[in-house]
Amino acid sequence: MTAVLRAQGLTKMYGRHPGLIDADLNIPAGRVVGLVGPNGAGKSTLLGMTCGLIEPTSGTIEVLGDKPAANAAQLARVGFVAQDTPVYSGLTVADHLRLGAHLNKNWDDALARHRVQQLGMDPAQRAGALSGGQRAQLALTIAVAKRPELIIFDEPVAALDPLARRQFLQNLMAFISESGINVILSSHLLSDLERVCDYLILLAGSRVQLAGDVDELISTHHRIVGPEHAFRSLPPQIEIIGSEYSGQRTTLVVRRTESTPIPQSMHAEHLDLEELVLAYMTRAANASFDPQQGARALQFHR
Length: 302
Ligand SMILES: Nc1ncnc2c1ncn2[C@@H]1O[C@H](COP(=O)(O)OP(=O)(O)OP(=O)(O)O)[C@@H](O)[C@H]1O
Prior knowledge:
This protein is α/β, with parallel strands linked by helices. The protein has helices spanning 43-50, 72-77, 93-103, 109-118, 132-145, 162-179, 190-196, 214-220, 273-289, 291-299; strands at residues 5-14, 17-27, 32-36, 58-63, 78-81, 150-154, 182-186, 199-204, 207-213, 221-227, 238-246, 249-256, 268-270. The longest helix has 18 residues, at 162-179. The two termini are 41 Å apart. The relative contact order is 0.13.
């Protein structure tokens, strides 16, 4: 099956400033992908390259088996909802649907009208007078009515209150389960992503720190707690992602290959997605602050 996104050595430099460095990705079809990372990590840069708005400096990227925005057919296969869910404030809801129909060959007018009705939006209402939640729903409606194979959202829920956010995500999930569409969604709200996504990409410091199926990431990462000396004999297939000390106790966050069990003498527990992401973000932040210290912190136990 064609990968949704395949990248090799993908790099974007803004002058001398890195946007994304040397990203290797291979995302299988049928996933709802969560893209996370701190401010300035490179999320919008990666999404911009995925939909062809940003040209890579070097490396390769394929989306649904083709170069992003290679031609009109490829453009129609990908829907993009940029940050702050852009709509035209002077146009009515109905105008937006007419414009969508005019610009998109595969436009599904029945779907668009049904969604507007279901959401209780007045077609004669100007978009500028809609609430933030309604504007986000309108942008989602336009994106799905294009009938793309992949929809990309850059922080779609950032400006929404908790209730509007929940409604937006419920709505999105319902559409995904009906249509089986591929989705890439960036957000700072890890609890939202945990509910929605089954694949995770974590960027920090312009680099991919972690990418994979959420179930597999959860099953291969553990928190182990004990006295420091107990960890000196950890097998090398167990990678230390982070460490914390309090009194005589050491807490490690570790990743193991699927075939390497945690030694039975050690008590290990699983992390939730938020804890896992925070461990990698902390590691990246420590390493960028002082690479020498980052490396030392991870190796002192061995
Ligand atoms: N047009 C630009 N010119 C120069 N530097 C840029 C430009 N766009 C992004 N950058 C830089 O590239 C890096 C990655 O930015 P990007 O917007 O992709 O990060 P992000 O993860 O989306 O951040 P945020 O969560 O704040 O939206 C940042 O250091 C940013 O300052």
